[in-house]
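hey so u asked for the seq, here:
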Amino acid sequence: MTLEKRALALAEHKRNNRDAVTMEDLDISLQNDIFIRGDDFAAFVPMLQGFPSDCWIVKENILNSTFEEKYIFCLFRAVSNMVRISYGSEYPPTVMVNNDGSESTFKKKMQHLEDYMTYRKLPRELHARIREYYKARYEGQWINEKSTLSLVSRSLREEILMVMCGNLLKNCPMFQNSDIHFISAIILKLKYEVLLEGDVIIQQNAPGDRMFFIKHGQVIVETSSFQEELCDGGHFGEITLLAREGQGATVRALLTCRLFSLSIDDFDQVLQEYPDAMNIQSEQRSEE
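ran it, structure tokens below
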């Protein structure tokens, strides 16, 4: 029995039982025929639906055309779908695209991570924290932001990052009166980081290598005689950039935190490009 006759027989059976046709209803050989003969598949669904008025076959006015004309149209639509063209057609085909690419990649990465942790026999608690970090860091979507931003021009990259974290710098006194070009250069150096609840971000008296800006989250800054909580829009660790001294307090994440960090090396590199910005440091020291 031909593909068309088998498909029509199935459709007639389902109509008699007032049921819908799904791919699960097709036997394996019929499914294979459909996918192998992709040109026929362009007309398969409309045929099962009884050629409704809004289907492409009716709109293209080929319902009563010869078999050869129908076949050529189906072949054209199948090829159009693959190469994403629709020249000469008033009703172009809908391109089927996998919209779950980043989610699928994330799941594969998570599975690879699970396999690694099992192979290394990591403790259950550490296992759970690593899994929690990945979920918080990528939020179910595996997107390489650095690679993605490299695909756009520098000016567009600056604009994107300015939207993402421009207000964080504006809230920081050491950058409030800075030249816009200096701010743009600083923004390009910021690194995105995720810290989990309970993580020690800065240890008192330990040497530091960067300062932090809080995009989302909450931290506690504490010494033996002082405590202060910071949340969205806050910053800490600037003593590292200004005085190059050990950290004056311990900073711990109270919630999962999404931060941007600026390292000493990156800060110094920007200062070399904008030497006049050095007065920021002297002004800050005089205020202290």
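Residues 101-119 form the longest helix (19 residues). The radius of gyration is 30 Å.
lmk if thats what u needed
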